Amino acid sequence: MKRLRSGVDYFESCDKTRLVIFPTFGKHSYSIPSPYGEALRVLDCLSDRRRGDGGDDADLQGLLGNVELSDFVNYLDDEGLLIDESCEMGLSDEARTRFCRQMAYFEQSSAFPDNVETLQLNLGKRSVAVVGCGGVGAPVAELLSATGVGRILLIDDDVVELGNLGRQIAYSEQDIGVPKVSALAKRIGLINPQTSVTVMQERIDVENYARLLLESDFVVVGADTPMPELLYWLDDLVDKRGIAYICMSNCPPVFRVGPVFAQPGGMRYKAYHERLETKWRDAARYECYSNTAQASKVTTVWVCYAAAAISVGNIVQYLLTGNCALLGQAYLFDMESLSGWWGTG
């Protein structure tokens, strides 16, 4: 049985006039004009993505009774976008080589179960949304791709500017004027072609956050606006959909990583901030400042990548085990004194 290769994504265009098939491993994209409803159902079946009533083998076989749809699947196969399902039952030799040192870490760490190949395979089935592709969001996305996370959703409405290049080294001078989500998707494709990337060039707001983030297992908050409203919206998704998220903030020379908010009924950002006001007034003042536009404009590349590295280690652990050091608590680090401390609500 054939299925869609890892690293092949597809989505409807914003104006709903065409269906775009986007391989992240170097091939050009493909475009299918409207009406494309049946082709979309075929892709859903081939990728095990469920939409409405679609998605099983019997449904696929019924669709392939249509000659045009059968030819469509043959075309995808000829273009190298499909793979035998049996080939993805376990790790490929290429994946074992690519992730050998990471799997060695899994094997030695007491934080992870014993079957390291299963862990790596499971990581390839996880989906992470990165909201904001700037100083922290971009390196987080790069590192997640390098670890083998299967699907990354990039959300940002900004374009690359010269002033970004001093701290956002995922981008280059050739990317100036290009949407950040597009440039970062290209960068991820170079790091790990098996990571499927979806791009959304729009600003997240109260009207669209649930729609954009609904299919993600985990959300990384790398945006500096709208704060703290975005975190309150994500609290709602944690309770209603079981989605987990991590937030970070910056108040030079200190940065905060975490908490990870997860598990329905657990601590949420609003409660975390209210407890800070009661128990640690200095920390609360830091938190209020870090949520301002002024704070977001004061940072360095080494702060961004330090925060990203700590975040990704915890994200990977949470995705694979449901637990991590930052679950319900934050870590604050002073880059000048090299001192750090835990902050909990």
Automatic annotation (TrEMBL):
Gene3D superfamilies, alphabetically?
A: NAD(P)-binding Rossmann-like Domain
Pfam families attached here? ThiF
GO biological process terms, alphabetically, are: cyclic threonylcarbamoyladenosine biosynthetic process
Residues annotated as domain THIF-type NAD/FAD binding fold: 112-247
Quote the InterPro entries the UniProt record gives: ThiF/MoeB/HesA (IPR045886), ThiF_NAD_FAD-bd (IPR000594), Ubiquitin-activating_enz (IPR035985)
Q: Which SUPFAM superfamilies match?
A: Activating enzymes of the ubiquitin-like proteins
GO molecular function annotation:
tRNA threonylcarbamoyladenosine dehydratase; ubiquitin-like modifier activating enzyme activity
Q: What is the top-level taxon of the source organism?
A: Bacteria
Q: This protein is called what?
A: UBA/THIF-type NAD/FAD binding protein
Q: Give the originating organism.
A: Olsenella uli (strain ATCC 49627 / DSM 7084 / CCUG 31166 / CIP 109912 / JCM 12494 / LMG 11480 / NCIMB 702895 / VPI D76D-27C) (Lactobacillus uli)
Print the organism lineage. Answer: Bacteria, Bacillati, Actinomycetota, Coriobacteriia, Coriobacteriales
